[in-house]
Structure prediction request, 313 residues.
Amino acid sequence: MATLAESEQDFSRLPDLPADVFTAPLKKPEHVGDDWLEPKQTVYDSEDDAIWNDLFKRQMEMLPGRAATAFMEGTEKLDLGRGGVPEFGKLSEELDKLTGWSVVPVPMLIPDHVFFWHLANRRFPAGNFIRTRETFDYIQEPDVFHDVFGHVPMLTDPVYADYMQEYGKAGWKAMRYNRLKALGSLYWYTVEFGLIEEKPGDIRAYGAGILSGPTEVVYSVEAESPNRIMLNVDRVMRTDYVISDLQPTYFVIPSFEDLYRQTVERDFDKLYKSLGPGFTYANTAVIDVDYVVNRGTLEYTLRGGRGSGAKPV
Ligand SMILES: [Fe+2]
Prediction:
């Protein structure tokens, strides 16, 4: 059966990228190999550790009742609040016992095909640096706080852990069809900005982009501005997204099992053949087939969003 992933692909070593595949050109720093892994994790000083501790404290004050239960449990299982930037070796040991994942340091954003390959091998690449006090609230490039605090707790959930591995395998199939943008949308609206309805009317965030910052934690689950729509994979993969502002629309899953089933069991060959190279729907759109949880006012977005002075309400 054709699925999300390329079942015949061997991921034991980094596969060669076919010549007709388009990926973003990134310049590899000289000190890393083809796997883009840092030889070792940065040794953080006391100010770096203090930044981690302050970020951790701020987020943990906002998350109860807003973050997915699996996320909150993950932070405890991995003891992310033990003080200072977590040591990846120790973190990986604990994560390995739970779901067989590990965390590996990378210098910066890495090429898609290398990222997918690590995920397919249950390795999560995490930034080998931490933000400064000047960029405390928002950074464009994912640092160790976004990557480890935002992403890693969810990897303690067995079903979510499997979803992430399948996503990595799926990347190779999407590349062959040159449909990375569409698959990127799925990542964006699930792994980075996903919401889950844990009980009727109880919507929580599980996306790392939401959970690693102070504003979107509240906005995504409580504000009247954004649309909240039940996730439909075909629809999401046709939907545009913004990378530098709060989302006008979030997609909600009923469970991680449902997310896994919708993506892994879907015939993506058919889907990729039907998709155009661009997106069909604007990120503000609500369409006829949507199962709408909350139709948003879009007030924040319509007032101009980030930089306009609009309140995230
Ligand atoms: Fe991320």
